[in-house]
Amino acid sequence: MPTHETCSDCRVLTLGSGQKHWRIVETKHTHHPFSGDGNTGFSGRCTNGVLYYQDICGSHRFIMRFDVRSETFSVITYPWDRSYKFWKMLMMISYEGKLAFVGSVRGGKSIIMWVLEDGTASKYKWSHHRYSPLSHYTGLDLLKQFKLIGIFVDGDLIYAPRAFYNFLYIIYIDPKKDG
């Protein structure tokens, strides 16, 4: 699927069947895959056989969901409204086998996570979590000094310094224990 133009079909390459071939999968949604901007720098994520990617149609942004097994598309709206302001990078992750977004709001003391719990093509349900793992450290602004660089299989979030000086600090946050 081209990322520089609007399209209404997707090309699928089948591997492992003895012969490689492309075919077109139709979608009911004309859309334009979008790799992100300075605040939402993610291209997509594949979780349990479902590909999720950011999409744009006119001035509207949403998430496209492509089920690899059934080769069907559906549209998911973001769990936050447009007025929600992120201070720094928002990351699309796979959390416990589910699509999730992790970010932080201005001030950097709290981590926000939205997890796509379940749903059908007509209605998806998100859970919202807020963690304050470093709230007991005065003068530490998590996102000014650290950035989310990844997630462990068990769900721990990994933060590393934005700049390295004499020491290297890595912060592991277990959302199940609220930091």
Query: What sort of overall outline do the alpha carbons produce when their principal axes are compared?
Result: elongated
Could you report the average pLDDT, rounded to the nearest whole number?
A: 76
Radius of gyration, in Å, reads 18 Å
Q: How many distinct folded domains?
A: 2
How helix-rich are the residues, as a percent range? under 10%
Number of strands: 13
What portion of residues belong to β-strands?
Answer: over 45%
Distance from first to last alpha carbon: 39 Å
Structural class: mainly beta
Uncertain ranges: none
- Number of alpha- plus pi-helical segments: 1
**How are helices and strands ordered from N to C?**
EEEEEEEEEEHEEE
Largest sheet: 6 strands, antiparallel
Protein name: F-box associated beta-propeller type 3 domain-containing protein
Domain F-box associated beta-propeller type: 5-177
Organism: Eruca vesicaria subsp. sativa (Garden rocket)
InterPro entries: F-box-assoc_dom_typ3, F-box-assoc_interact_dom
The gist of it:
By secondary structure, this protein is an all-beta fold. It contains one helix and 13 strands.
